[in-house]
Amino acid sequence: MKNETEIKALKTVPREKAFYFFTSIGNYTGESASSLREFMEKINTINIKSLEFHMYRGDFEKWVAEVLEDKELAEKICKLRQSNYLGNILRIKLHEIVSKRFKELTELG
Amino acid sequence: MKKAFKLKVKNNSVTLDSTDIKILEMLQEDARKTYTDIGKRLGLAHSTVYDRIKRMEHYGIIKKYTALVDMEKAGAKTVTALMTIYTDPKESEKVAEKLCSIPQILEVYTSLSEELQIIAKVIAENQEKLHDFIATTIAPLPGVLRIRTSIVTKKYKETQPLIGNDPKKLTPTNNKQIK
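Output (structure tokens, whole complex):
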């Protein structure tokens, strides 16, 4: 049975807890995500440099685990990071993982 | 001969004459100079120097006396960066005020260009902490549209304008060079 923690992952977080997309140290793109849905949508549109930057710093899995409190999704993103994908393949794979998880959670809700 | 400067301080106004300017120049050179040292150089009684300095302190012309520390030589390992923060014009004043209240931010300016920008100098322990600071403290501020950050790799010069200098006549010998 799915627990409340998993459903909590669908919440919208306050702006200070949102995910802010950067392309390199200190260079903020102006894009942010305050929920899993928004995060999933941004994966499709954000500059690929930003995806690569955050992916290999482990920022996505950290935000998903600590802010959205979804350990399961964080682990999947961590595994993807270890595959060392770059460019559009990374975008597609990451979107696949996140959208699948989003679907699972919305079906629960 | 130097002109007298008329400065407005809040609702009062105060006039600086050439002697005040000379006193300020000497204090900018070395703030530890005594009233007697300054008086001797300018041919004034130390009490006159005292009165003039107190007046300039009172009106906030002399803001404070501080030590200019060479952070590198003092062993502080810090990263310095210059952030260009693009802001929504409606929020830029609030963003600038907020930046001013953060101790890690050393200087804050607004600049004239096509888009409204705030330029701020920031220090952090290392690049990772700099990034965390920008991501968790600056990017979430309402009105921040995007940020460009340049990390300083080497400092060639650091100085402050001397009160008596005419900017048109500034030469490298008027300013102290960092060695």
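Chain A has one domain: 4-102.
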